[in-house]
Amino acid sequence: MRIFKKNIFGQYIFVKKGIIKVFGSLVYPRFNWVNNTEVTGGEILKDLPNQKVLFVSNHQTYFSDVALFLHIFHAALKGRPNTVRYPGYLFHKKHNIYYVAAEETMKSGLLPKILGLSGAVTVNRSWRANGENVRRKVDKKEVQNIDLALKDGWVITFPQGTTKPFVKGR
What is the pTM of this model? Predict the structure, then answer.
């Protein structure tokens, strides 16, 4: 049955879409009433290919930046490229958008676990674990998962790997 279709990571697409709709509706006021979100350049999003697109961004908060990306992407694809004012875009059908997230963050509570189902490709940070500096090798399986997500759609990554300002990218 089409409703039970899964994405490349075996997650149900209807669950992912539902989380994006509910969480997107909850944070919509923040982007439109609390903060005056300005979007420029959104018109190029509709002309991007459906796969193999990588977005690289600074990391300001744990979840708001991913949520805003999703708002911007869906609004642009729905025909409103430089505004997130009209929430009808939350019902857009693009489900192959993923974001790279630290595994320890996505397992840190119920809300992160739920949000992880909205498209997280989790990685173990090679330089930090549980608030301590560490040195470990990069897990090639995690790199392959990012590559798999890129082959399927769009991926957002945050090379700073942290929400602290002015940290160099990794």
Answer: 0.85
